[in-house]
Amino acid sequence: MTAPLVVHHLGISQSERIVWLCEELEIPYELKVYQRDPVTRLAPAEYKALHPMGVAPVITDAGRTLGESGAIVDYIIGRYGQGRLAVAADQPNYADYVFWLHFANGSFVATEMLGLVANALGVPADHPGRGFMNARSERVYDMVEQRLGETQYFAGDALTAADIMMVFALTTMRMFTPKDLSGFPNILAYLQRIGARPAYRRAMEKGDPGLPPLLT
Fold first, then answer.
1. Which of 20, 54, 146, 178 would be 203's cystine partner, CB 3.0–4.6 Å?
2. C-alpha span between 122 and 131 (Å, rounded)
């Protein structure tokens, strides 16, 4: 019987998070993979037609269509995960969980997207705006490095949905906005822990077969 939950994965995109989440939760789902346009590197028309925003990720489930990484993560955990990979509000690490869950797209990916757009527009390296963007990006990486020197995972000693959200920005996002991690040993050690997870390896191979995860 076909799983009601369909994950629409756009190659090399934030929708890898949702594939990984489903693999970690070991829930039934159908995976549909879409390739980027070879010239524009954007989503194909059939993917854009799935949701009014026209961007990844997107899921369909029981007649519903849902976008936005954080919303989809919350939805799947609540509907299919029985709360697994979330942190309850009465737990001492709840604030850490909520912060990093939302920091991923609210600050991290948003900051890196500034650089991506600036590059696409040909903004010169000496433009004053570059200094602002670079300083903001450095603050982000410094915060992440400090946190991963304190805990094994973003919310504490166990993997949670906060990690599901954060890893994309530390890995695949760097294919669009390159970042040398040699000066961030805690981040590198963390990525090795993530890369050793069977569910993560399965997700990456299913979503982007033949593309090695950017873990170094």
1. 20
2. 15
pLDDT of the residue at 124: 81
Cα distance between residue 167 and residue 72, in whole Å: 16
Structural domain boundaries of the chain? Answer: 5-85+201-207, 94-197
The fold of the 94-197 domain, in CATH, is: Glutathione S-transferase Yfyf (Class Pi); Chain A, domain 2 (1.20.1050)
More confident residue, 133 or 11: 11
* Superfamily of structural domain 5-85+201-207: Glutaredoxin (3.40.30.10)
Whether the CA torsion 204, 205, 206, 211 is positive or negative: it is positive
* AA identity, residue 99: F
With a cut of 90, say whether residue 61 has pLDDT above it. yes
Distances (CA, A) of 73 to 9, 14, 55, 113: 14, 12, 16, 21
Predicted local distance difference test score (pLDDT) of residue 126: 78
Give residue 1's pLDDT.
44
